[in-house]
UniProtKB/TrEMBL annotation:
Family: Belongs to the UDP-glycosyltransferase family.
Gene3D superfamilies according to UniProt: Glycogen Phosphorylase B
Keyword Nucleotidyltransferase: no
Pfam families in alphabetical order: Glyco_transf_N, UDPGT
Start and end residues of each Glycosyltransferase N-terminal domain: 34-243
Record-given protein name: Glycosyltransferase N-terminal domain-containing protein
Organism: Gossypium raimondii
GO biological process: flavonol biosynthetic process
Keyword terms of this UniProt record: Glycosyltransferase, Transferase
Length: 459
């Protein structure tokens, strides 16, 4: 049973008001004079934090042009809506380059496994010539490019040939970046070695590097990167970036259940920390056996839950599951209003793949992370949060691993029914993250420093 003290702490701990604008009080540092081009990578887990980052640049007075392809333009709706009366944000919409391994009409990685990452990187590199020509003909072209980490290899070359600066926006943290570039730190699979060579290593050769993390969590690893891999100190920790708030624009895409209905259901759960949220992001597809194991664990644990699934033919809950647990939980197919769910005081824990965006959202929402790392940086994030910091619990591990339903049921049940030391430590880390993005905090100061640096650039 949750104690009154913890219930009170949870109520005050949950973000109140427009938390998405907590980093926003810096004023017009850029004075609208400096023009920057930003290039997100076409995957939801990259585009969304990139947009939140752009929001912070716009709040500080920079002029930003965002490069997207036509079918990714909808991701920009919230920020375009928010700045509809401003001349400081523009879009550059270029056709998505064709690629023999990407089906016609597909322009982002939603629904594709991580193995398609290098293929999309190859396709995006074909934008080099159109972009070069755009710069040559623009009456007032950008003085710098900020690109996603996965695009650094060719954007570095483009920037050099244009004689402008290039900065890399890292959607991962420094802790998970180090193993990819530090020889001998850990053995990488051949595919990950190639990934590190083609994507991560070039990103560290950029003129500037921007991490969605905060110094109090990641400062020591950033210092190692600075000492071992860069020849400058233009590294900024500007996170955790918070989702922008824009009226009447759903973040990401459509859902099978409207956000208001999801929140209304959570409101009906009159106990703080009593709901488990289950979600594995836009890239992970669970197997039939994994779906059955989770369903069985939920049934056995009898916890209240929200389960976000991709909604395709593979990710289907077992027949009869929703009927048997009617009223006990909500299954959302398609896009999930994840941050709104995690911010609700009824949500106590979060079974997650531990991608960095999701980990930060869970941490900020005050949910106890139940980590099930599956690929790429998930394992390093889990090691950091579970083993080094003790702020999360390891629930399972591996992309194809099928958890024991009985053991998973116990983890789920305990996560919402008992006080755990991990939760107390997580609350301290959460406060450190919130302090970092408040006025005069480390990330707030770093954002101002970044904008001041960009504002001093002249062609």
């Amino acid at each position: 049973m949750v104690t009154n003290a913890i219930m009170e702490a949870k109520t005050h701990m949950k973000p109140q008001g427009d938390i998405g604008n907590m980093q926003a009080a810096a004023g017009d540092l850029g004075n609208g004079a400096v023009h920057i081009l930003t290039i997100p990578f076409p995957a939801a887990g990259h585009i969304l934090p990139h947009i939140d980052f752009i929001h912070q640049l716009l709040l500080r007075g920079l002029k930003v042009t965002i490069l997207v392809t036509p079918k990714n333009l909808h991701f920009l709706n919230p920020i375009l809506s928010l700045y509809s009366s401003s001349n400081n944000v523009e879009t550059l919409v270029l056709p998505f380059p064709s690629h023999p391994s990407i089906p016609p009409g597909v322009e982002n990685m939603v629904g594709f496994p991580i193995s398609f990452g290098p293929i999309f990187m190859e396709a995006m590199a074909e934008l080099y010539n159109p972009l070069f020509q755009w710069f040559q003909t623009h009456p007032s072209p950008p003085v710098a490019i900020i690109s996603d980490m996965l695009l650094s290899s060719w954007v570095n070359t483009l920037s050099s040939n244009l004689n402008i600066h290039q900065l890399t926006f890292m959607v991962t943290n420094a802790n998970s970046t180090l193993p990819l570039v530090r020889k001998g730190m850990k053995k990488l699979s051949p595919s990950m070695e190639q990934f590190a060579k083609n994507a991560v290593v070039p990103s560290l050769k950029s003129w500037g590097i921007i991490f969605n993390t905060f110094l109090e969590l990641d400062g020591d690893k950033m210092e190692i990167i600075k000492e071992e891999f860069t020849e400058h100190d233009r590294l900024w920790a500007i996170g955790p970036l918070l989702p922008i708030k824009a009226t009447n624009n759903e973040r990401g895409g459509p859902s099978s259940i409207p956000r208001d209905e999801v929140i209304a259901w959570l409101d009906s759960c009159n106990r703080v920390n009593s709901v488990v949220f289950i979600g594995f992001g836009s890239q992970i597809s669970l197997t039939k056996l994994q779906m059955e194991a989770i369903a069985s664990a939920l049934e056995e644990s009898r916890v209240r839950f929200i389960w976000g699934i991709k909604g395709d033919s593979q990710n289907m809950v077992p027949l009869g599951f929703e009927d048997r647990l009617a009223g006990k939980g909500v299954v959302i197919k398609g896009w999930v209003p994840q941050q709104a769910i995690l911010d609700h005081q009824a949500v106590g824990s979060y079974l997650t793949h531990c991608g960095w965006n999701s980990a930060l959202e869970g941490l900020l929402g005050g949910a106890l992370l139940l980590a099930w790392p599956m690929q790429v940086d998930h394992f390093d994030n889990t090691n950091l949060l579970v083993d080094e910091l003790g702020v999360a619990i390891r629930a399972c591990e591996g992309l194809t691993t099928v958890p024991d339903p009985n053991k998973l049921a116990r983890v789920l049940s305990k996560s919402v029914s008992a006080d755990q030391p991990e939760r107390a430590r997580a609350m301290k880390l959460r406060q450190a993250a919130l302090d970092a993005i408040q006025m005069h905090g480390s990330s707030y100061t770093a954002l101002n420093s970044l904008v001041e640096t960009l504002s001093c650039i002249r062609k």
